[in-house]
Amino acid sequence: MTPRLELREVGFTYPGTAARAPFALRDVTLSVGAGEILGVVGPNASGKTTLIRLLSRLLDPDRGAILLDGAPLASLSRAAVATRVGVVPQDVPAGFPFTVEELVLMGRFPHAPGRFFESAADRAIAREAMDAVGVGALRGAPCDRLSAGERQRVMLARALAQRPRVLVLDEPTSHLDLRYQAECVGLLRDLNRGGHAPTVVLVSHDLDLAAHLCHRLLLLSAGRVAALGAPEAVLEEAILEAVYGWPVCVEKHPRSGRPSVRVVWPDGGPPEGR
User: Fold this and answer.
1) Going edge to edge, which strands form the sheet with 5-14?
2) What are phi and psi for residue 178, nearest 5 degrees?
3) Phi-psi region of 23 (alpha: psi -120 to 50; beta: other; left: phi over 0)
4) Contact partners, residue 269, CB within 8 Å, separation at least 6
5) What are the start-end ranges of the H helices in the chain?
6) Paired strand residues for 166
7) H or E element in which residue 70 lies
8) Predicted confidence (pLDDT) at residue 89 exceeds the cutoff of 80
């Protein structure tokens, strides 16, 4: 069966400057199936953001190839890519002078870029996306009056309105409180169970979230693949300590076997008297 997403020895190099050495993402090879959730983890400056830009075709690889449903991503226009790949960014702009519904409807634009007005079908898809992430009651609210967590969910609704085959999430729970983090995880699980489930690429610093939610993890380090496999195989103490340069403790759930990562703090515990 043809993978939904495939990377073949993909590489990209940023030129260096007087203040910064060149950075390169090197030889990334992997395939992701339809409906699979792949977690991308790693330290800062490991290549996670570069990978997002390559998958959304903001950048084109200077080595290797990216295929979507067997077709080269480079053969598609950026508008065509936007009908197939939805991206939820980590930093949600606060100054949009639009309502929630207007912003979510922007996710429909790539499907008919020459059209000035949305169709009834577009509005129905947008309402479905808003209801799915719990912002349906906010459809008429101005985006600049929303909390950071509400804006994050609206951006997820906009990506869902694109009806993407691949959904790329950059730190999707970074602005959410504990309740909405749990709801976000539940939503992604529900999406994954659907008959037309998108492939999800989840980029996160939260190793526990990635371990709980993802089928496989891609661990990047300095632009290279340090490990790729099931969460319990990737989140091993020796691997993480080598990549992050810091001691950790990994515990596995007695029933599911899913790992949980705990940092070994320098002082060994909380302040005295607490």
Assistant:
1) 23-32, 5-14, 63-68, 71-72
2) -60, -40
3) beta
4) none
5) 48-55, 78-82, 100-105, 120-132, 148-161, 178-193, 207-213, 231-234, 237-244
6) 85, 199
7) none
8) yes
Q: What is the pLDDT of residues 189-213, one digit of tens each?
A: 877 776 567 899 999 999 999 999 9
Of 77, 92, 66, the C-alpha closest to 3 is 66
Token pair in block for residue 157: 């609704």
How, if at all, do strands 259-263 and 216-221 pair?
unpaired
- Its pTM stands at 0.90
Q: How far apart are CA 173 and CA 152, in angstroms?
A: 8
Nearest CA among 168, 99, 177 for reference residue 136: 99
Structure confidence by residue, pLDDT tens digits, 143-193: 988 887 788 889 989 999 999 999 999 988 877 778 777 777 787 787 777
